[in-house]
Request: fold
Amino acid sequence: MNTTWKDRLLLSALRLSAAISGVIIVLIAGLLVYESLPALRAVGLGFLTDSSWHPAAQAEEGAFNLLPMVAGTLALTLGAMLLAGPLGLLSAIFCQTYAPLWLAGLYRRVIELMAGVPSVVYGLWGLMVLAPIILKWQAPGVSLLAGILILALMVLPTMALLSDAALAKVPLEYKRGAMALGMSRARTLWCVSVPAARSGIITGFILATGRALGETMAVLMVTGNVVQYPSSLFDPIRALTSNIALEMAYAMNDHRSALFVSGLMLTLVVSILIGLAEFITKGRTHA
Amino acid sequence: MLEGQVTIASIHERPRAGLLDFLTALGGWTASLTVAGAIGWILFDVFAQGLSNLDWRFLIEPVQRSGRAGGIGPLIVSTGLILLVCLAASVPIGLLSAILLAEFSAQGNRFVAWVRRALDVLAGVPSIVFGLFGNALFCIYLGMGFSILSGGLTLACMVLPLFIRSAEEGFRSVPGEYRLAGFALGMSRARLLFRIQLPEAAPGLAVGLILSVGRALAETAALIFTSGYVTRMPSSLADSGRSLSVHIYDLAMNVPGGGPNAYKTALVLVVLLVFINFVTTWIAKHGLHKRILSL
Reply:
């Protein structure tokens, strides 16, 4: 290989750019920690033990219990994944096995389109159409249930597309083998293809969970944003992400710092989920 | 892949259909119809509500009475400028990073592995956290305030992993023989890259660019606290400017009677995104051998 000064210059430029790309996440983490420190010092365990969420610019004057919003976020995510997980997997199975080829292609395009619809548009529909429908059934309409339904639709493409790709990669020999053993189509699917594709399916589930945890706008628009532990599906709740979006506009000092604490928590949880997904993808190939 | 599917389909004509088969088929069809029905409902709603009384002047008129009246002219300009800043920052850095990841990453190179992992995590960071980050770094520490510049740079950080992934796919789809032939002709690495590999990878780069534009257009949470709320026509990049997505949010949540114009704005945004979606698919289909999922 002939190495000229131009090549060396090029390589330095490439390394520099890649370093910049790589350093952004470090900057984000660093800044989140740095901005969180004042609140972590002043409030500390108060994030878990204070009587309520009534933030103030000075830590001594406010109450900073994040748990109701943590519960809100967890309830939303759990509900959304209980819906999106099976629906996404069944969608993938439909594309791979049951749909005629032309319909499978069309349906994939629809799901890709879903992935591109902005979260404010989901939120707008949830607020204008879905919440009034729920209101006819149980007040106030904007509720945990509305949030779960919207969120399930939003994270479904991640689950469906990754499961679809995983099922498509199952070697044809496995299916031929199953067929030679006289297994029916559904038995082949559930006993051979799905287990063989499980690492991809689980990865899809984990990444979709990460997206559900971090979604802000749609949740903000349809859940009513009352800080309380949800006691039924029809209660309005507030998610951690919504809280940041709602209060960032006027938060000062310790209050602002407390919002960075919730951002830091979210980022940590999502990063752990991504690490987990990477571990599963790398650790296992087809069983 | 296509051939494989045909074979499986024909293979599976044969078996005894039991209860499990029936239930699985029923589940698959029900799930798909539910999902397609839901997204169909959402899009139909946006089109039906958005098209009623839509006038082309909506696209150029200034925002009046907090958005209840008037149009979205200045917001389209603001959104365009935010996009420009975003692309001007993310494309050069993303392109060079992608080249390093695709072409110069010997197996087991620790630096490359580290960058890749960092980008994976960056891709998963919630958008509201990008908002916090952009607000702290660009608006406050770097003194840019609420401005189009802050918003665009925040979005640049956000779309970088997406752009790099697609661009890398583009470079990887260039046949390895080209590189060997280039070296055999005594080309330098730089010349080979810019004369041969870059033009060959162009479809992948285009897909990455368009996907990034789509992601940036759809983004709201990261912009509220970086590019701000101002609805005036921006006179420079240092001005605050409201994006279309932020406008939809604000009209729906904070402006009583803002519903009709929220729908019209949503229609404009959705039409742009659907168009982008089709262009991406077309390029990916005709220019790339590998399929790139818009995840």
In short: Chain B touches chain A through 108 residues (CB under 8 Å). The longest helix of chain B spans residues 19-51. Confidence is low (pLDDT under 50) at residues 1-6, 289-295 of chain B.
